[in-house]
Write a structure and sequence with these properties.
about 230 residues, Methylamine Dehydrogenase, Chain H, seven-stranded mixed sheet, globular, WD40_rpt
């Protein structure tokens, strides 16, 4: 059975096998713009470039692809991961793409050339979520080893390790003001950390199963998890 990954305007609708589709919406209709063929296995991660002109996708085929969002053209394939790619994130300044993998690494790529800038040994198990600081100078990641980590970019220096979860850290998200990091995971909690020193500020409870995603509101006053 074939399923497709859809990008409906800005929202991710569903993930599927080997293809990426983009759709657009007007005032009264939605229509398919492109089907992006090229990956050879399930597509797990997608992201827009800050200027909305390009799309990056990550796949279990161990590659990241960059696409022209207007023409649907496959611009380049980024190779380096030795196992499947999970989440990907484009830096706010547009210069970098970060990807996480089953190979226990985070890779940072030059978004213009496709060259690998950094290979971060970002945990002792599968790497899940990844998020950029608003100034593109730091990168956070979550790992199945129950820890989140914060890196300096482009030096690749490990700035701090966030410890407190009792299950896999599945997702992380940086607050819009850059002062806090939210994380969530297999222990059914959301945690909020002070980005400057890694201090745990809050543990939010209420979920009854693994928390798969966490996202700050644009104004930084609210946090969405699910």
């Amino acid at each position: 059975m074939k399923a497709n990954l859809l990008l409906a305007f800005i929202a991710v609708v569903m993930v599927g096998c080997g293809t990426t589709q983009t759709s657009s919406s007007g005032s009264n209709e939605q229509y398919l713009v492109h089907t992006l063929n090229g990956h050879t296995n399930v597509v797990y991660g997608i992201t827009w470039s800050p200027d909305s002109k390009k799309i990056a996708s990550g796949s279990i085929d161990s590659t990241v692809k960059i696409w022209d969002a207007v023409q649907g053209k496959d611009l380049m394939t980024l190779k380096g991961h030795t196992n499947g790619v999970g989440r990907i994130a484009w830096s706010p300044n547009g210069k970098y793409i970060a990807s996480t993998g089953r190979d226990k690494t985070v890779r940072v790529w030059d978004a213009g050339t496709g060259g690998e800038i950094l290979k971060l040994d970002a945990g002792t198990d599968v790497i899940f979520g990844v998020s950029w600081s608003p100034d593109s100078g730091r990168l956070g990641n979550g790992c199945a080893d129950k820890k989140a980590r914060v890196w300096e970019i482009p030096s690749g220096k490990l700035l701090r390790t966030l410890e407190g979860h009792t299950g896999s850290v599945v997702d992380v998200d940086w607050s819009p003001d850059g002062r806090k990091i939210a994380s969530c995971g297999g222990d059914k909690t959301v945690k909020i950390w002070y980005a400057l020193n890694g201090k745990l500020l809050h543990t939010l409870e209420g979920h009854t199963s693994t928390v798969m995603a966490v996202k700050w509101s644009p104004n930084g006053k609210e946090l969405l998890s699910g």
